[in-house]
Design brief:
Number of helices: 6
Number of strands: 11
Structural class: alpha+beta
Radius of gyration: 17 Å
Distance between the termini: 40 Å
Helix content: 10-25%
Mean pLDDT: 91
Low-confidence stretches: 1-15
Amino acid sequence: YKHKIPKFEKNEVENIGNPKFYFVSGFEHPKLPIIKDNGFFLFNWGLIPMWVKDNNQANEIRSKTLNAVGETVFEKPSFKNSINKHRCILPINGFFEWRHFGKRKIPYFIHSSDNNFLSIGCIFETWVDRQSGEIFNTFSIITTQANELLSKIHNTKLRMPLILKPEDENRWIDTSISPDEIKKLIKPLPDGLLNAYTISDFVNNPQNDRNQEFVLEKHFY
């Protein structure tokens, strides 16, 4: 991000006042740090489009907008306003996916092969509740077709988050690039840049307190 805003070191990201997360459920709409073209902000996961009429509609739609399919993001009413001018990056250490074996789901933790941050391509929106005047800043993660590794892990939907290569980070948050340039950035991460390992199926049960450091430990089946 050096051409737009200062490049943040890992300890700076962890010390911006946001709780430390080990496991995040999007359906809880956590507040996470995102990078826009003008700085670092805390936005809630689950995009609320600007045309939403009231709080009831906002609560209903935000659980359906955790992800935005990259192939249709320019067409969907919930996302087409955001994709052109409201793009951001979610920096993460890694993410979780599940591999299906019949009725069994094996959880994996996926991270960069060099243990650096992954820059997830996202879109954002600001919505104002007309009744209360409350301002909601929200975002959605763009997804793409899975690369070879994620095709083996996420073997039912064959999808993965949009992970930007370092040389594409500034372009993604550049509000001046064209729709054609944006579309060229929405693609699977090349093979060989990610590693993955299995973790405990403790994370499969939403009744468990999954936001604990041990969930990132390797577990063999």
